[in-house]
Amino acid sequence: MKESELNQKIDDSVDERVDAKINALLEEIKTGMGEKVKDELQEQVNDVLAQIKPDPAIVEADEKASQFKSGGEFLSAVYKARNGRELDNRLTYINSKGEAKQVPDVQKTAGHMEIGDDSQGGFLVPEVYRNDLKVIALENAIVRPRATVLPMTSDSLKIPVVTDTTHASTVFGGVSATWTAEAASKTATKPTFGQMELTPHKLAGLTYASDELISDSMVALEPLIKWMFGSAWGYFEDDAFLVGTGAGQPLGIQNCNATINVLRNTANRVMLEDLAEMYRQMLPTSHSNAFWVINPTVIDDLIELGSGNAADASGKNLVWIDRVQDGLLWKIFGRPVLISEKMQAKGTAGDIGYYDFRYYLIGDRQPITIDVSSHVAFATDETCWRFVLRVAGQCWPQSSKTLRRGGIAQSPFVQLSAETS
Questions:
Q1: Using CA atoms, how far apart are residues 151 and 171, in angstroms rounded to an integer?
Q2: How far apart are the C-alpha atoms of 12 and 228, rounded to whole Å?
Q3: How far is CA 95 from CA 119, 121, 168, 211, in A?
Q4: Which class would CATH give 253-360+408-420?
Q5: What does DSSP assign to residue 101?
Q6: What is the pTM of this model?
Q7: What is the residue-wise DSSP string for 351-371?
Q8: Phi-psi map region of 409: left, alpha, beta (phi>0 left; psi -120 to 50 alpha)
Q9: Residues near 85 by Cβ (< 8 Å), separated by ≥ 6?
């Protein structure tokens, strides 16, 4: 298969997966709704899907960039362009607004490329090379490979939400059914819809390579840049998706309004009773897709996990392991356990979470770009490489919902609080 055909299949596959994931979640949300509710929500989601088609300029730029035979050849072209040697027509410059600028439109003056006043963009990384970076990033990423990822072609993407906070008297924010006598009048009810807005934030990273390495071989430079950028991208993105404040960065799951904080049984500990309560407050339809995520400092509590409130030294039935010789089966109530240092330390709110990541939305506004400068570290004979991307992220539900009877709230995002019951 030709590389251009492979890229096209990748693009088509991404489009299909986005549509399929959105529609699957939509069907789950619509379960039990009346036809009017389903039609109204479907219409709003269709408007969103119409906005997330790939930018034609970026698609065209990808086609040109696919002509690079390797990542090393691409890096070499960027280096030569920035050092005034030559401008490769396969390069595309993406400015800080996410707009594609073809190299023939860029003026070459005084031995460097003149990009107006823009200094925060970079050269579009070819799709195949971007996929390599993603593979490295996703090996360590918790959220992105399990979340709902949407392409963004503008600096704002409005997503419809059903305002459903309590089932005390209605469902779906206002839909009610009443038992009535024959020929009695009926009261019209309707659901309440709201909107959430995805706003992208910039993530940038720097790394340095010696001038000798660059002079020796761009082929040797490629794996270094790929590993450094791929790992850093995945790490800091993941950190924001989990614990981000929403101020200049994505809003992380731990800070979303929909996230439920369950009071713990014992201060600075994780007990079986805590896990049971977290499990019951998970949205019932999310159990088959949810993951437990823990900080490494919680591991010892899980290994020593027992039922009852007896002292650690006696009277406790271990429920995690049968024998010390056996390997650990990292599951709680049948669901996988993921270990990440990005979660909070033991005893802090969010040291352990039970999350259905499908309800976390990621908006990719600007594909990853790379730029280079030989001036930043001139005194140490090093060349500075920079990557930039723009990404949005926040929880789709805007609140948890309180059950009609029982008084507890449920959500696709549940975690342990620092406070005790």
A1: 31
A2: 29
A3: 8, 4, 51, 26
A4: alpha beta
A5: E
A6: 0.77
A7: SEEEE-GGGEEEEEEEEEEEE
A8: beta
A9: none
In a 3-state reduction of DSSP, which class is residue 280? helix
List the one residue out of 416, 414, 409 whose CA is nearest residue 168.
Answer: 409
Three-state DSSP at 144 gives helix
- pLDDT tens digits along 277-326: 999 999 888 999 999 999 999 998 888 886 555 445 455 566 666 666 77
- Hey, is 260 helix, strand or coil? strand
Question: CA-to-CA distance for 14 and 2, rounded, in angstroms?
Answer: 19
How many CB atoms are located within 10 Å of the residue 327 CB? 6
Provide CB contacts within 8 A for 13, sequence distance 6+. none
CB 6 within 8 A of CB 62: no
Domain locations in the chain?
3-157+198-251+361-395, 253-360+408-420
As a whole number of angstroms, the distance between CA 32 and CA 346 comes to 39
Q: Which residue has the higher pLDDT, 228 or 372?
A: 372
Residue 10, judged by CB atoms within 10 A of its CB (0-12, 13-18, 19+), counts as middle
Lowest mean pLDDT among 208-222, 275-289, 352-366: 208-222
Structure-token pair, residue 32? 């039990």
The predicted structure's pLDDT at residue 166 = 65
